Amino acid sequence: MYLYDDFDRTLVDERIDEFRDQVARRLSGELTEEQFKPLRLMNGVYLQLHAYMLRIAIPYGTLSSEQMRMLAHIARRYDRNYGHFTTRQNLQFNWIKLEDLPDVMADLGRAGLHGMQTSGNCVRNITTDQWAGVAPDEIEDPRIWAEILRQHSTLHPEFSFLPRKFKIAITAASHDRAAVRVHDIGLRLHRNGAGETGFEVMVGGGLGRTPFIGKTIKAFLPKRDLLSYVEAILRVYNQYGRRDNIYKARIKILVHDLGAEAFAKEVDAEWQVIKDGALALDPAHAADITARFRYPEYERLDDNPEELRKARSSNRRFATWLDNSIANHKVSGYAIVTLSLKPEGGPPGDATAEQMESIAALAGRYSFGEIRVGHEQNLVLPHVAQRDLPTLWEKLETIGVATPNVGLVSDIIACPGLDYCSLANTRSIPIAQELTRRFRNLDVAHDLGRLHINISGCINACGHHHVGHIGILGVEKNGEEFFQITLGGRADEQAELGALLGPAVPYAEVADVIEDVVAAYVELRERPNELFIETVNRVGVEPFKERVYATR
Amino acid sequence: MTSPLQQKLKIAGPVVVTANRLGDGVVVYRTADNGWSTQIGAAAIATTVPAATELLHAAIADDISAVGAYIAPVEVDAGRIQPGNMRERIRLQGPTFDLPAIFGI
After folding, report:
1. What ipTM was predicted for this assembly?
2. What homologous superfamily is domain A134-291 in, according to CATH?
3. Residue A198 confidence class, pLDDT cut points 50, 70, 90
4. Are residues B97 and A347, on separate chains, in Cβ contact within 8 Å?
């Protein structure tokens, strides 16, 4: 966990007071909606179909038990007893009342939580690998750099009115779990030939109506230069990014129009002016921030202890969960546990207040009081002793978050869609729910192997459909819900955009089409362990298209 | 985004003006007596562009009661007013699935 200091607490407290005053002035009529809207958006308050929606920042997806308990409290006291974890590692409440919001913010503030920069044309919550700090394949904890960037970008006056929103993601692992190549800036910590650690800097990635994979403009950036280089990118974007057309305002359009090389030259020219100034990172400053991250005092434990071996051999369901939801930890005797928020028939990413409270307690008991949120809309207990896994599993089962479907066909990413969102054209969640029912047989799901389905209810692509192995995009045709299917997308280190399967299909046929696609994969795969994405890469979309549209 | 007042109105049938109540965001409908109701059945119906525009202008001017006013299609069957499309049905009736809290644990 990162320990906030007085500066952070004061900043949050001042914002709460300011927002309370703003809400009071709006409710009294002193402020018009036109005046108030940008103020509420600066605090993550949107107006959706049925109600106000509050988006709460979870920096780099790390939550303490105390913070999770506070989210449960908010859900219970001010909302409808649940919250929604998003693809940006945030949490949204869908039924918040404006008149309650000052008290909600005050409660959140007591736990070091807020909604700042979860909306608006600023640098948004910086996301990272949900296994940061514990993944065996990472070279260091990327959250330290996310925190440095968070501090630098929070309320940064020069970057509070960018042409459009701006998203940064960081990974430090060989396998990219943070989807860095589809962010405005993607940062990959790696070692150069001399063994020094620095960043590969990618820019111009993004989804939405014009998707692009980010381009590398700096293969190796020394750590001392991180802030100055990111600042240079933002300055170039702030100066040249389009403000005349909201659909062309993201940095990806600028990078595409200028070309990555020309864009990099502009950045470099700006960077040369500032790189040795105040933004050159003082190692003492970085060390101070590093020191404020508290890591557990792990016991010296062996891997695969007897309690675990016994439970595995005596309980098949436990063994299935173990094989699916547990990942290796960098410390021997410990494990990373993923909690599936994708039960059969459930809305992806939703958790009830009771679940949040139980997870907070279990994290306190078994994970040193720490929880992570992943962009796949699942939760993680990052520091669980392997000997505790059998007991923990039983408790997770009782609260419905131990479905062993992590990374499988029913672990679906879905945006809120037309059931909540004022931008959506179609529903997403009911499609996801139906697919989890169609693929409820976990033996079948395990046989299919890793298969990511991503669903977006409109072209804004909050469900990241472009990078789903199977992507589903809702479009409206003559007032009816239709869905375009794409195949072959991926969000990892080999990021690709999916290719269109064929004409859009009506709502009622989507689940049948996905079943056909999956059946085609089973027939087409070369060997039992050839993954769906590998089969699509090998044979292309055409054989799937023939199968799906032959009878339609 | 174009302001609702600047949008060129096209009306193919009966419409109402709907918005969200300021204090709690609840869906409301503009009534004939220049108020707001949570009941779509109490909504003022317009069938012409001038009538709809007048209703919308008055609703937007009432900035203290409701926000985000816009014109929405409805169907009127034997005097009973129903939402005219999926979006408006969801706004009136809520999400099309059971909310998570109802699942229980």
Report:
1. 0.92
2. Sulfite Reductase Hemoprotein, domain 1 (3.30.413.10)
3. very high
4. yes
